[in-house]
Amino acid sequence: MDKLIQNGNVVFETEIRRCDILIRGEKIAAVFAPGAFSGEAEVIDASGLYVMPGTIDPHQHLGLYKDLGDAFRKDTPRQAVGGLTTLLNYHRGKGDYYETVQEAIEAGEKNSLVDFAFSLGLCAKEHLNELRGYVDRLGITSFKFFFDKQDIAHTFYDLPEEAALTLDKADFYFIMKQLREISPELLLCVHCEDADLFRALQKAVKEEDNPNDRYSLAGFEKTRPDWVETITIGDTMWMNHIADGNLYVVHTSAASSVEMYDLLSGTLGGKVTLETCPHYLVLTKDSPCGLMGKVNPPLRTAADNEALWEGIRSGSVKTVGTDNVPVWKEKRYEPGDDIWGVYVGFGGPGMILPVLISEGYHKRGIPLTTLSMVNSTNTARVFLLREKGVIAPGYDADLALVDLDWEREITPELFGDSDFSVYEGMKLKGWPRYTISRGEVIQKDGVVTAEPGRGRYIRRHVRP
Ligand SMILES: [Zn+2]
């Protein structure tokens, strides 16, 4: 039976209008003026709710510290509670990507509640001979480059040193050119932190051996200050201009980086998209999470939070990804309990939409239309998710029906597949009463209503 979402305030790209949305099967079939539809349909009453495209999270690391299938099964239900309908996971590591991506697709289709795609880490020289094959055979159109792993890719991927990419500027330039030759739509996601610089700064902080630094995020931040990111973004944007590439800067953390983008983006060629994360919008190096908040790049200051919000408002920051890494506390401490030991990364499942609504709309007055673009539409476009992220006939019926006034505190039931949260105790106002994925209600009032294993791998294509 068709579904009719009735009386909602529908958030389109540039306006919010009271509309009814007809869903037929997995797709949006029509958008009507309120009351104009006269056929038979199961009605979902959206009075007082704001209907937005479901969240698309472009940045996750399911399977990094834990089994991938497990992470899909246990973490994606929590993500749906936050309004998420699609995620992109970074796939990287040893082995033949044609095989390992296939295994990851199976793990996802068996266990994920929501739709998913992969971005592929480039770390072996051999990967560069296969780029076209990854696009054509695996349906992957986004890749990842790690400046922070310069000269050490072989240790992460279990490769002989000579088989690994150096991951220096020259590698970036040639890879971007190669992608550009296959298609201008292919995206290179780049971790912008200069390894020579942070290694030298780590050494200096270690030698200084200030006891206040050793157990604090503020100490950790000294090893990777804002400018280590900012100058790498500047260099990379300039090389992207020379290569006429399609650059995507992951997890932008610093006010100075937004400034660098604003300075260069008007004059340089190529496309550039800046992503930030919920933690760079709401947490600082002084937040109560302490070293549980260790992440690269580091948490910084309230001024950086504000600059990133202003970047969202102005359109300089176009997407938000969680950098979600399901992990146990105990695992984090395995190598040691100070800034040199603790592993990086933490969970943040389903945090994008509640953070955008609570902190962006309620606290800062950023229009819902802008936030909705960041939450979904911009991400769908840049990652070539061509049937997602828009409320219009023909698109997948992936929707979040948001109650702007529903306030929830982040408690263990919202941690997902992790046993801690850097957001614990935070109160966020603005949660979805319903999450709908391809026409199916997968979450209602915070309770998951569908079975994991219904999510589908999204094979992506470039235009011929
Ligand atoms: Zn990441």
Comma- or semicolon-separated keywords:
17 strands, TIM Barrel, alpha/beta, binds zinc ion, about 475 residues, about 35% helix, 2 domains, nine-stranded mixed sheet
Detailed description of the structure:
With 464 residues, the chain is α/β, with parallel strands linked by helices. It folds into 2 domains: 3-45, no CATH class; 55-385 and 405-428, Alpha-Beta Barrel (TIM Barrel), CATH 3.20.20. It has 15 helices and 17 strands. It has helices at residues 68-81, 97-111, 131-138, 153-157, 169-182, 195-208, 211-214, 217-223, 226-243, 255-265, 278-282, 302-314, 329-333, 352-362, 368-382; strands at residues 3-11, 16-24, 27-32, 42-45, 50-53, 55-60, 84-91, 115-121, 142-146, 187-191, 246-249, 271-276, 317-320, 399-409, 427-437, 440-444, 447-448. Strands 1, 2, 3, 4, 5, 14, 15, 16 and 17 form a 9-stranded mixed β-sheet that branches. The protein has an 8-stranded parallel β-sheet with strand order 6-7-8-9-10-11-12-13, sandwiched between helices. It is globular and about 70 Å long. The model has no long low-confidence stretch (mean pLDDT 97). The protein binds zinc ion. Zinc ion binds next to loops.
What is this structure, in a nutshell?
This protein is α/β, with parallel strands linked by helices. The protein contains 15 helices and 17 strands.
Estimated radius of gyration: 21 Å
The structural class is alpha/beta
CATH-derived topology of the largest domain: TIM Barrel
CATH architecture of the largest domain: Alpha-Beta Barrel
Share of β-strand residues: 15-25%
Low-confidence stretches: none
Q: What is the level 1 CATH name of the largest domain?
A: Alpha Beta
Oligomer: single chain
> Mean of the pLDDT scores?
97
Q: What count of structural domains?
A: 2
